[in-house]
């Protein structure tokens, strides 16, 4: 889900870039890094507790910022294959029991036969009803948009003020 930012004063960006490309790059990089970190926090805070290969899904959510003179792109994502099913939910299906046993042990603190029994009941419910999507990425990014918008507007104001001070 892409987030598009429309900062006030971007029409002045060309002039700013011509006068001080290093300052523009620094301010935009700072705004992008802070925005992506905030979005990552918002997504992780909405991610349900669980267990899986290599740990919890929330612990696997990372961010990256790619910046070059032509474009700045920020990503928040995970390499966990099951993240899509958690995000969007699933249709009824019989899930594998072992990951559910791991989840029951980690989250419900049950062990042995009791953990396997509860995991089987959960699997049967998923087989009958599917799962509801948690929408942690969608809602996390939506919650981040006001901050991101404000942060880029702040960067533009700062650049315009610095340029105005340099021209005075």
TrEMBL record:
Q: Name the chain's protein.
A: Phage protein
State the organism of origin.
Pseudoalteromonas gelatinilytica
């Amino acid at each position: 889900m892409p987030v598009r930012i429309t900062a006030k004063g971007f029409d002045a960006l060309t002039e700013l870039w011509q006068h001080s490309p290093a300052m523009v790059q620094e301010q935009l990089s700072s705004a992008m890094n802070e925005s992506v970190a905030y979005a990552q926090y918002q997504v992780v805070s909405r991610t349900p507790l669980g267990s899986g290969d290599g740990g919890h899904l929330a612990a696997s959510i990372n961010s990256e910022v790619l910046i070059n003179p032509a474009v700045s792109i920020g990503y928040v994502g995970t390499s966990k294959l099951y993240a899509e099913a958690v995000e969007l939910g699933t249709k009824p299906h019989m899930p594998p029991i072992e990951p559910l046993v791991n989840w029951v042990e980690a989250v419900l603190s049950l062990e042995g036969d009791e953990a396997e029994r509860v995991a089987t009941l959960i699997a049967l419910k998923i087989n009958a009803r599917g799962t509801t999507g948690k929408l942690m990425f969608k809602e996390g990014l939506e919650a981040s948009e006001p901050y991101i918008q404000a942060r880029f507007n702040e960067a533009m104001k700062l650049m315009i003020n610095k340029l105005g001070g340099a021209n005075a």
